[in-house]
Write a structure and sequence with these properties.
The chain has 270 residues and is of the alpha+beta class. Helices cover 49% and strands 15% of the residues. 23% of the residues are buried.
Length: 270
């Protein structure tokens, strides 16, 4: 859907680290019509300026392996302040996404292969290798897919691509166990980083929700119609009215404004 204004603001999902924001910026900058693109990792927001359709922008974001939604759209948050924290919270975080769930399944398969490798006769070693290869495919596919897309669309070599190459190299020399372990640990490391970032964003949202939406300021009466023409007054700050208290939105508070904070009130600005 085309926008009537050149500005596009979106919320981004699926970013695990600051490098994800850089990859998005480079990948989106390749689109025709983009004049400015900014991806803010701490708040998971995107601001784009230029003559480009929102649908085109969202399509490229998804092609790079991330999700997008408008800021006003409601997204079911699996990790709100009421969600469990610690190990249980991380487990829920893994289940909430299809790619992370694949890594969870892969870890269970790798654990299941250990008794076979330790206690079953060596004639069954092929079964262990088959399970380890399956683990590599399940845990490594999302990583390799994201790395290849970043290289093609953003012209950037990321850690995802490097880890995929390292895993493929270990697989080619017959070290399937090491390859499965490395790619699985990397997948869990990325998931843990993303989980930590989500918890930090939740804490930031909770903190921002405490900030008052309005502020009481003391300002001079401007362009006072009542006293225009008196004592040579022609406009601007009225010398006859003095200072008035007025309530305004916080984003309209200006430098040098005197902000009032009565007992029991939260400070609207710092």
């Amino acid at each position: 859907m085309s926008l009537s204004t050149p500005d596009i603001r979106l919320r981004i999902t699926g970013m695990d680290c600051a490098n994800c924001a850089q990859t998005l910026e480079r990948g989106l900058a390749q689109l025709d019509g983009i004049e400015e693109i900014q991806v803010h990792f701490p708040t998971a927001t995107l601001h784009a300026r230029g003559q480009v359709d929102e649908s085109t922008l969202v399509e490229r974001i998804r092609a790079l392996g991330y999700g997008a939604a408008r800021p006003e759209d409601t997204i079911v948050d699996q990790h709100s302040a009421s969600a469990p924290r610690g190990i249980l919270g991380f487990f829920d975080y893994l289940k909430a996404d299809r790619h992370r769930a694949l890594a969870l399944i892969a870890s269970l398969l790798l654990l299941a292969s250990l008794p076979i490798e330790w206690f079953v006769p060596s004639a069954w070693h092929w079964l262990v290798v088959a399970i380890q290869i399956l683990v590599i495919v399940l845990a490594g596919y999302p990583i390799a897919n994201k790395g290849i897309r970043a290289m093609v669309l953003a012209r950037q070599i990321t850690i995802d691509l490097l880890m995929s190459i390292a895993t493929l190299g270990a697989l080619l020399i017959g070290e399937t166990g090491e390859a499965a372990t490395v790619i699985l640990l990397f997948a869990f490391g990325e998931a843990l980083e993303g989980y930590t970032a989500e918890r930090a964003r939740d804490s930031l949202k909770s903190l921002l929700s405490l900030a008052p939406a309005q502020a009481t300021v003391q300002r001079a009466c401007m362009d006072c119609e009542e006293h225009l023409g008196q004592d040579g007054y022609t406009g601007g700050a009225c010398p006859l009215c003095g200072i008035h208290e007025t309530t305004i939105p916080v984003n309209e508070v200006m430098i040098n404004d005197q902000v009032l904070a009565r007992p029991g009130e939260r400070i609207p600005v710092d």
